[in-house]
Design goal:
single chain; 64 residues; alpha+beta; two-stranded parallel sheet
Length: 64
Amino acid sequence: MKKTARLARAIRIPVIASGGIHTIADIHALGAVVGDGVSGAITGRAIYEGSLDFAEARKIAEQY
């Protein structure tokens, strides 16, 4: 997530994180960098594999 945040700070358009999101902890890590310009995430594989509960992740993401 550090590289994603660094990219978001370096450019002036919103960044959507893709890849590397596997668990709820990753959602919290992205939430910590929302202020840096990260505006969303793609989580398809983690949902299909069952390592990420989409409903829980969405609820947490909405708090940020």
